[in-house]
Amino acid sequence: MRTIGWLAGVGTLLAGALYMIVSLNRWEWNRALFFGLIVLIAEVGLATGLVLRRLARLEYRATRVDPAVAQILRETRPPSADRFAWLREPARDLNVFITFLVGGGVLLSGMAWVVDRVASKSSSPAGEERLGRQLDPISYPAGGLLLDDITVLAQEVPGANDDQIRQLLRRGGRP
Amino acid sequence: MKLTPMRLLLGAIGLGVGIVGVLALREATLSTHEPVSAARETELVVSAKTKGGEERQTLPEMVEAQVQTCRLEVTSDLAGPIEPLGDGRFRAVLTPAMDETNRRQFRGCVEDWVIDHVRIDVIELANAT
Question: What is the DSSP string of chain B?
Answer without folding.
Answer: ----HHHHHHHHHHHHHHHHHHHHHHHHT--------S--EEEEEEEEEE-SPPTT--HHHHHHHHHHHHHTTSS-EESSPPEEEETTEEEEEEES---HHHHHHHHHHHHSS-STTEEEEEEEEEEE-
